[in-house]
Write a structure and sequence with these properties.
The chain has a domain at 41-102. It has helices at 6-11, 21-34, 37-42; strands spanning 49-54, 86-90. The termini are far apart. It is of the alpha+beta class and 103 residues long. The radius of gyration is 19 Å and the shape is elongated. Helix content is 25%, strand content 11%. The protein has a two-stranded antiparallel sheet with strand order 1-2. It contains three helices and two strands, in the order αααββ. This is DOC domain-containing protein.
């Protein structure tokens, strides 16, 4: 467990004098767009994997289909024929006993 950054915590205790309702709205939009989006892609493996990166994907067959536990869905690269890749960034201490890939 990390020690708290005392200076950062102190700065966040009070609302900055220039903060406005528009700042609140911007913050909410930013958090909605960015926080937790990666977890949506991890599906059932989020306890073992920090993130998944792929060479590319189509909008219809995106990276979330790699881990949705449905045999009828799949990830599809948006690139031309050739090298395509999937990178699993594993959580520290994870031991892999089995890894299944279907091509």
């Amino acid at each position: 467990i990390m020690e708290p950054d005392v200076a950062a915590v102190e700065r966040l205790r009070f609302v900055p004098p220039t903060w406005s309702y528009e700042c609140d709205e911007d913050l909410v939009h930013f958090l909605y767009d960015h926080i937790g989006k990666e977890d949506e892609n991890l599906g059932s493996i989020k306890q073992y994997v920090d993130s998944i990166d792929v060479s590319s994907y189509t909008e219809e067959f995106n990276v979330s289909y790699l881990t949705d536990n449905h045999e009828d869905t799949y990830w599809e690269s948006d690139g031309s024929q050739g090298q395509h890749w999937v990178r699993l960034n594993m959580k520290k201490g994870t031991i892999i006993k089995k890894l299944f890939l279907t091509v």
